[in-house]
Each structure stands twice: as structure tokens, then as C-alpha cells.
Amino acid sequence: MLVRALRSLFVLLPAASATCEDFATYSTRPEGTPSTGPLGLPFMRPDVGCRTFNSSAVEKVVANLTSRMKDPDLARLFENTYANTLDTTVKWFNDNLTFVVTGDIPAEWLRDSVNQFKVYLPLVGHDEPLKQLTRGVINLQARYITQFPYCNAFQPPPESGLPAECCSGDTGAAVSPPENLTIVWTCGYELDSLLSFLQLSRRYYEFSGDDSIFTFDNGGWFNAVENVLQVIHDQATPTYDAAGNVISFYNISGPNQQYMKNDGRGPPKANTGLIGTTYRPSDDVVYFPYNIPHQAMAVVELRGLASLLRSVGLRPDIQATATARASSVETALWKWGTVLTKDWGEVFAYEVDGFGGAAIQDDPNVPSLVSFPYLEFVNASNSIYANTRKMVLSTTGNPYYGFGPVIRGVSSPHIDEKHVWPMGLISEVVTGTDDDDILTKLEFLKNTTTGLGLMHESVNTHNVTDYTRPWFAWCNSYFGEAILQLAQTKPHLVMKDGDAFNLTTVLLG
């Protein structure tokens, strides 16, 4: 009862703190005391009374790890980024639901919110309020997916009392199945959004053992999972039936979505066993309908779903469906998702259509080709992955590899070819095996915050002051996750004493 009372009190804090500056403005200028390193990076966490959630476990991790890191600038970046989601993006929660925004966009993206919270999962067994908050993210996502399984971003829930924000990303769009803009922010169908919900559910249970996500709202989680599997089934259907009729389960066109070809249906897809998508993880429309990083994530998360349900002894029908689909997608991925190139050998394509079309590139947004080991699809030593990594991280193999004196790495058509995304460099770090290369990427990341001490969405390869999004919570969480991983697995790179960071010891201390 005490925990619930404290949480109820905390709900009032953001509303009570009328003097707290909006972080969208706060994040655009240096605040706080500079770090003692050569970059003098500012302290960019809001005052305690202005934070949207406080976690005792997070504070323990921050205090212990930063005190032991040998690079003061890197330590300051970890301090600012690791807690950023909790500090700034939890707009409302109660005992069962949590509404979290992406940062400077006032909506909850399924994919972003999962990636914002993943970094905290190892802590939920040691921090009951944080566990409850994370469970609320899953519960609300289950509701959203049950209502609008093809949609990717959402407005606040009615219980919050928060108004629907204007103006939705789908203002002026034509969408089928139809959406409701009092609930939906954008209805861009992204397979990875649905898979992210499965991932957060699985990993939350692994760390918490909390099975209440299966029973909340009369088993609404299972309704969401059934919707995910139905979308996957439908989107594995080819464009043409046996009589040549065109089949489409989802159409979208509109000024803010980029126009999809073929009256909003998108490019045709052959009968391959792969799962179609309309948007990439970047929110850009696909060139070809079968995004290969999506397929890799689907294999892992569908098997993970089956394993989760086996562990709790529930829904053998879903277990069987998920296992069968994972196997069919994996077989199709290895058949259709690799391409033999003259310069790089056999590589993974970024997208294919099953008719011979293939996009040879990568995109920095996860899931990406570089992130395959992070997704747990293949090991970094896999020969096709190794070839692919060399190709997409080269100036001659990837049309969207930007390079210059400021930063070099994977760029994205979501902005343009000359803006490299720090998120892509973080993926290089978490999947990297070469110590010198990892340190090089960390230097780029440290030196491209424009002195603001937070991760940007993208940075111009020749002008560090030309960046997008000063407040991008997903990338901040991802950077915090990367530093925590290095402290645990490659402590000689970041720790003064070279000793591995032990999360359990710190949390129990």
C-alpha cells in the first residue's frame, strides 16, 4: 500500500511542477556543471522535482558506474542518456498503464517506447515501482494493438485526462483499415513495431517473472498477440492470387506519410514466405516490401513468443503458430534475403520483393543489418553477416554511408545522405568485436552532441552544428545500453580499474 501511495503522489509531480521548463527547449542549450573531461559536457538531467519518474535502481547504476569510468566525458554522456527516458518522457501513468512519448514528438511509438525501456529491464526485479511502470507500457501497448494493429504511434489513453495532441501525423491521410485520430497518432504499418511488443513482453517476463501482463484487462495481451499473428499471416500473402487479382490488407497515402505506390498498397510482393511491411524502422516507406532486418527480428521474436508461452504453460495453439511461422520465415530469409555481389561475396540484402528486386544498403534504425547480432539472429562471426557488415560500413558498398571530418557512419533517406545517425554508430559498438574500432566510434559519439551532452537523431558529416532532434529518447536509451554492455563485457575499454561492472552487486549493495 505504501508503494501505491507513493506512486499516486508522484503522478501529481509533473502537473504540480508548473515552473519546470519543457525539455524540448531545455535540451537545446547546455545546462548544469560541465564534466571534467576535455569536452566539458554539461549535466542535462532535469532537477529531481521536474523528472517524470524517479527510480532508485537507476540512480544506483548511474552513481556507481560513472564513479568508476575513466573518461569523464563518456561518464557524463552515460549519466545524461541512461536515465533520459524516465527523466523526461513518462507523460502519465497509473497502477496499470504507462504513456511514454518519444521525446520531442508528443506521441507513443510502439517501437520507440520498447527500445526506450529495454535498458531498464535488468533492474525491474530490484525496483518495484520501475517494474510496475514497465508493466504499464506493455499493458497500454496491448490495448493499442488490439484496437489498431496496423498503427505504429498513439495518442494518450482516456484515463490520463490528457488531450489528443494536434496535429496527428496522419492528418489528411487516407488509411485502410480506418483509424481514429483521437487514439492514433500515425497508422504506418511497421512490422518491427509489432515485434517490439513481443520482445518487451518476453524480456520483461524473463527479468521479472510477473505474469500479470497475461491477465490484465481480461487477457487483453492475448488479443494483441492474436492480432499480431493475424497481421503477419495477412502480410505474408502475395500481391496476386491464382487468378491475377490484387490482394491488399492495408493501404495508406497522404501528405505526411510519403505516397505509397499503387493507390497506397505499396510495391508488389511475390509468394516467398517472407512478411511484408509498408514502412521501415525509420518510418520511411519501403523500396521493396520484404525488409530483411524485419524478417530476422521476426524469426527471433516469434520463437521467443513460443518459448515464453511454454514457460508459463499457456496457449499451445499460439505456441504452434508462432513456431511454424518462425521456421517458414527463416527458411525464406536464407533463400530470398541474400545476394551474391562481385566485391563483397554473399551478403544480406536490406529489402527484396521476391521478383528479383533488392535494395543493397543499410539504414541506421534498428532493426538493421548491422544490428543482426544485437537482435540475436546470427553471431558476428557468421560469414554472410561479416561480408554484409564490411559492405554497408564502407564508402563504396553502401549508398547511405556518410563520411566527413565530423562523423562517419550509416545515414538514412529519412533525412538525407549527408546526415549520419548516432544510432547506427551505437549499433556498431554493441555488435563490435574490435576494441580500437569501438573506441573510434565512441569518440565520434562523444564529439557530435554539439556540446549538449545528449544523442541527436542525425549529424551532418561536415558540420557538427547541423543536426536533427536534440531530444531523441530512443537513441539516448540505446547509448546508455551500449555503455552498460561495455562495462560488463569489455570493462578495459571504459573502467578505471578494468574490472567488470556487476549489475546485481550494485543493485543489492
UniProtKB/TrEMBL annotation:
GO biological process: carbohydrate metabolic process
UniProt signal peptide: 1-18
Transferase recorded as keyword: no
Entry-linked InterPro entries: 6-hairpin_glycosidase_sf, 6hp_glycosidase-like_sf, GH125
Top-level lineage group: Eukaryota
Keyword hit for Signal: yes
Gene3D superfamilies hit by this protein: 1.50.10.10
Keywords (A to Z) from UniProt: Signal
Pfam families reported in the protein's UniProt record: Glyco_hydro_125 (PF06824)
GO molecular function per UniProt: catalytic activity
Descriptive protein name: Glycoside hydrolase family 125 protein
